[in-house]
Amino acid sequence: MNKSDIKIVFMGTPEFASVCLDTLLEANFNVVAVVSQPDKPVGRKHIITPPPTKVRALEAGIPVFQPDSMKTDESYEEIKKYAPDLIITAAYGKLLPERVLNIPTYGCINAHGSLLPKYRGASPVQMAILNGEEVTGVTVMKMDIGMDTGDMITKVEVPIDENIDTDGLMMELAKAGGKLLVDTIEDYVNGIITPVPQDESQATHCSMIKPEDGIFDWNQDVKKIHDKVRSFKTWPGAQTSLDGKRVKVYETNIYRDATFDEVEPGTIVKAHKGDLIVACGSGYLKINELQLEGGKRLKAIDCAHNYKVGTKFGT
Questions:
Q1: pLDDT for the residue numbered 44
Q2: 46-53 contacts: CB < 8 A, separation 24 or more?
Q3: Rounded CA gap, 138 and 158, in Å?
Q4: Whole-structure pTM value
Q5: How many whole angstroms separate alpha carbon 82 and alpha carbon 63?
Q6: CA–CA gap between residue 91 and residue 13 (Å, rounded)
Q7: Fewest Cβ atoms closer than 10 Å to its Cβ: which of 145, 177, 188, 251?
């Protein structure tokens, strides 16, 4: 079969999925329907907002289905009516029941944002950054009833820059994942690629991120703290405290330009002309953007002068 013959139902929700979908459409694959999670309230005003994948699908004139659950008879019948040859998922956000997995002629495949079997689960991109990985990637896998446990079809590696955050890495992975899908689908459907089982002994898992996961300890090495900041920048935000109030830190760099007198971790060692430098358990962290509880999110260049050398975060 060639790409125009393969009827695809695409399932995905956030920007990662939207980029993958757009890549498939640009390559002229036959996407007959898109499934995404329901519209949700966004921002302080809770404005009901469609997910990026829905927006892209409607722009392309593709019908969109947004069920609350994939376990209902209605969802099953809605997918089945398209008689898909293949279901492709990318950050859809829900497990598919077995009867849905069995609908397509060639099964269901998923573009997962890690090099499986490492980082199965809900937060592979965040955990790769948090754990200081230098390389991650995308795995296209054949789906089964488990959580990212299916046989692997193809992979691509993506390097992780020291200062990239989750959103930036997500975009790089989305572009790589979309291209990988384009390069994989026809060969997979035509039996040219043989899926390979995952090595269960090498499997690692990552769960949903909780608000308290963002709290960090200044006694840690500077790289550990920097990795947490860029991993949790979008949500829930890396968090410390100052005079009993919460402080969210959104953007940092590892500071290597100078050394300072020995002080306790969390102590400000420089606050001048946009440089807000804090001592860690080892090394120094340059804070570029932060937000005091009850205040605005500010760049250090606009507020570093408000802090005093010797003041200690984490108090």
A1: 78
A2: 51/13, 51/14, 51/18, 52/13, 52/14, 52/15, 52/17, 52/18, 53/10, 53/12, 53/13, 53/14, 53/17, 53/18, 53/21
A3: 8
A4: 0.94
A5: 11
A6: 6
A7: 145
Place of tokens 């946009």: 274
Bridge partners of 110, per DSSP, are 89, 141
240 in Cβ contact with 216 (< 8 Å): yes
Question: Hey, which bits of 171-234 come out as E strands?
Answer: 205-206
Nearest 10 degrees: Cα torsion 215, 218, 224, 229: 50
**pLDDT of the residue at 273:** 87
235-286 pLDDT, tens per residue?
999 999 999 999 999 999 999 998 899 999 999 999 998 899 999 999 999 9
DSSP assignment of 266-280 equals TBEEEEETTEEEEE-
- What residue ranges of the chain have pLDDT lower than 50? none
| pLDDT at residue 259, rounded to an integer | 87
Length of the chain: 315
Q: What is the CA radius of gyration of the chain?
A: 22
What is the identity of the amino acid at 295?
G
* Cβ proximity of 132 and 95 under 8 Å: no
Residue 258 has a pLDDT of: 87
Report which residue type is found at 188: Y
Please answer whether residues 229 and 291 qualify as being in contact, where contact means their C-beta atoms are separated by less than 8 angstroms.
Answer: no
> How far is it, in rounded angstroms, from Cα 112 to Cα 120?
8
> How many distinct helices (H) and strands (E) make up the chain?
8, 17
Task: Provide the pairing of β-strand 7-12 with 30-35.
Answer: parallel
State phi, psi for 18 to the nearest 5 degrees.
-60, -40
